[in-house]
Amino acid sequence: MKRNFFSALAIFTALSLGIGVTSCSEKKEEAKPAPKKVEKKADPSRQLPNYRYVDLDSVLSRYNLAKDYNEEILRMQTSMESEVKRHESSIQSLATQMQNKMQNNTYLSRESYDADQKKLASMQANAEKSVGTLQQNFQATALKAQQTVNDSIENYIKEYNASKGYDAIFFKAATLYIDPELDITDEVVEGLNARYNKVKK
User: Fold this and answer.
1) What CA–CA distance (Å, rounded) separates 151 from 63?
2) Predicted TM-score of the model (pTM)
């Protein structure tokens, strides 16, 4: 679940709809020409609102800290999948050997069969325990990574805005439409990476 750091800014635009009603009469009236549409020209002196937005998906895909954590998590996932396959292969191998012995009547005694059954059950229990531990470590690492990245972004935004003085900085996903001129994603990514690279050195 993604954590929200900033309050979403809800923007509602009131649309007025003009409906012209004409009445029918026996006498035909000449149709009045439609009023010409007045095109609004951009005002060069227009002041941008005192808020900005960040595209979080873009930040997460370009922020080096997030990228490093993502690589670490992918490595853990690959390692976990390999461990699962290793256990499955060992268990399947023993189960196949037992099946072959039963079909060929090569078990010398009931005790020998019971010993293999006990070994198989032990392997299955060890596999469940090992994989369970790996899954817990994986989940803990993923949650810690997400929290660390989220905190880093939030802290940097606060530092960034201390010098900018915007009234609000929010996520692009929280809006239906937002003026692209209000996008500060590139600035934020640049600042995050500069700070992270400095600490990493």
Assistant:
1) 13
2) 0.68
Matching residue, tokens 């960040």:
54
**Tokens at 164, concatenated:** 């900018």
Average pLDDT, the chain: 82
**d(C-alpha 60, C-alpha 194), whole Å:** 15
Integer Cα distance of 6 and 113 in angstroms: 64
Report the C-alpha gap between 193 and 66 in whole angstroms: 10
| Alpha carbon distance 185, 84 (integer Å) | 40
Rounded to an integer, what distance in angstroms lies between the CA atom of residue 123 and that of residue 119? Answer: 6
Q: Which helix (H) or strand (E) holds 171?
A: strand 168-171
End-to-end CA distance of the chain: 31
Q: Given this model, what pLDDT does residue 198 score? A: 77
Residues 6+ apart with CB under 8 A from 19: none
Partners of 32 in the beta sheet? none
How high is the pLDDT of residue 201? 59
β-pairing, 168-171 vs 51-54, is parallel
CA nearest neighbour of 98 among 69, 78, 121, 66: 121
Task: Tell me how far apart the alpha carbons of residues 52 and 121 are, in angstroms, rounded to a whole number.
Answer: 60
Residue from 51, 69, 50 nearest 61 by CA:
69
